[in-house]
Design goal:
By secondary structure, the chain is mostly helical. The chain has 10 helices and no strands.
């Protein structure tokens, strides 16, 4: 038992080292994008009248797709941040999560190291949940860094008071979205019969879901089909007085994430892994 515990720690530390470079690169890129974009907010306020005149020429549908519910969102620090958060953490964060989670399992197979790993005193169940822990820890760290940089940028570039609660709620929604895509990545890994890198396939899945979400926001469309996409489950109406965590959304995120993890773990224990 003690030997298996030691093997779990070795595997955990090894996976952390394997993925630290990717986490650092993603954190730097996402943080730079967030800070750079938020730096434009003061310019938006400085030229508010001119921008207001230009924005009125833009169709509402285009603004909805971009993440702005109405023109006034552009001139609110939280509205401005929320619209850009869709791209930088909801979209890019989800791509990071699904790619990391799928490859962290599959690479043992396509790198031909699965036989060696499974010859060690460690069960498939322990392998699965150790790798799951590493993947979810990486996702959490990326979201935490992005949230800290976002809050720092908001504090620097805002010109008026802003409520911290909507920021925290949106951050939690984003984390739950990224964790859901992480669980989808694990599910993809365990149902793949032929081991190979699935990076482009996973990115494609995220982009398809994002496309469905974007189309569903266009005025005049019957937007209920957008709920097929996890992006739609995130409430980005941060300027609403009633904005907060909604039970149905949280239950959807957590319920499906846990279900996918349990099913993936079950399938992994029974998977015919080619060595």
């Amino acid at each position: 038992m003690e030997e298996r515990g030691e093997m779990n720690r070795i595997l955990f530390n090894m996976e952390l080292r394997r993925n630290i470079k990717s986490l650092i690169i993603w954190s730097l890129v996402v943080s730079a994008l967030i800070f750079f974009t938020m730096s434009f907010f003061r310019t938006v306020l400085q030229y508010q009248q001119q921008i207001f005149g230009m924005v009125k020429l833009i169709p509402l549908a285009a603004m909805k797709v971009r993440g702005f519910s109405n023109i006034n969102d552009i001139f609110s620090v939280m509205g401005f941040y929320a619209a850009n958060n869709i791209v930088y953490m909801m979209l890019l964060g989800s791509i990071f999560a699904i790619v990391l989670s799928s490859n962290i399992l599959l690479k043992e197979e396509y790198a031909k190291t699965a036989e060696f790993l499974m010859s060690r005193p460690i069960t498939r169940n322990e392998i699965f949940y150790t790798k799951l822990t590493v993947a979810f820890l990486n996702i959490f760290i990326l979201d935490l860094i992005a949230a800290m940089i976002s809050l720092f940028a908001i504090e620097i570039f805002r010109k008026s008071d802003f409520a911290i609660t909507p920021f925290l709620v949106l951050t939690l929604y984003t984390l739950m979205l990224n964790l859901l895509f992480g669980s989808i990545g694990f599910f993809i890994a365990v149902i793949m019969k032929r081991a190979r890198p699935v990076t482009f396939f996973c990115v494609g899945i995220v982009l398809i879901f994002y496309f469905l979400y974007s189309i569903s926001r266009i005025p005049g469309t019957h937007g209920d089909f957008g709920y097929l996409s996890p992006f739609k489950w995130v409430n980005i109406e941060v300027l609403s007085p009633l904005y907060g965590l909604e039970f149905i959304r949280v239950a959807g995120f957590l319920g499906i994430t846990i279900l996918l993890i349990l099913v993936s773990g079950f399938l992994y224990r029974r998977k015919d892994i080619l060595t």
